[in-house]
């Protein structure tokens, strides 16, 4: 089992930036795929971005492509989500997750480990 702890959420104005962090520990996760999801009140959990820990390949939802960047720091066992040009519709609880094959990275039910979530609010 992989343990995941997110941080970095907060309140930001439209057009602003935030960087979320996901610290991973536990089992060897060098072979894992790491993903970010988000869930707004009354909505389904939505895929945001994923990264293949071993080779750095990335994949993004169309809604965030060009604005968000997922990256990893192998030495710190941490995955990041840099969020720029934030919009009110980006407001949600953001979750880090680990586990699936690359072919199913956008499916929440493919992930076996989840963090507790961090709130991101975009508002003026």
User: What class, by secondary structure content?
Assistant: mainly beta
- Largest sheet, strands/sense/barrel: 7 strands, mixed
Spans with pLDDT under 50 lasting ≥5 residues?
A: none
Q: Roughly what fraction of the amino acids lie in strands?
A: over 45%
Mean pLDDT: 93
Helix content: under 10%
Please state the CA-atom Rg, rounded to the nearest Å: 13 Å
SSE order in H/E notation?
EEEEEEEEEEE
Number of helices: 0
Overview of this protein structure:
- The protein is mainly β and 124 residues long.
- The chain is built from no helices and eleven strands.
- The chain has strands spanning 2-7, 10-12, 18-26, 33-39, 46-52, 58-60, 68-73, 78-83, 92-98, 113-114, 118-122.
- The strands form two sheets. Strands 2, 4, 5, 6, 9, 10 and 11 form a seven-stranded mixed beta sheet that branches. A four-stranded antiparallel beta sheet has the order 1-3-8-7, with no helix packed on it.
- Strand 7 (68-73) and strand 8 form a beta hairpin.
- The model has no long low-confidence stretch (mean pLDDT 93).
């Amino acid at each position: 089992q992989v343990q995941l702890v997110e941080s970095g959420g907060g309140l930001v104005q439209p057009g602003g930036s935030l960087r979320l962090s996901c610290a991973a520990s536990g089992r060897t996760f060098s072979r894992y795929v790491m993903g970010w999801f988000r869930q707004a009140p009354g909505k389904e959990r939505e895929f945001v971005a994923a990264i293949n820990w071993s080779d750095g390949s990335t994949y993004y939802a169309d809604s965030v492509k060009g604005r968000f960047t997922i990256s990893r720091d192998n030495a710190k066992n941490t995955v990041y989500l840099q969020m720029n040009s934030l919009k009110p519709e980006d407001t949600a609880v953001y979750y880090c997750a680990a586990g699936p094959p690359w072919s199913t990275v956008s499916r929440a039910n493919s992930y076996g480990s989840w963090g507790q979530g961090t709130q991101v609010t975009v508002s003026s």
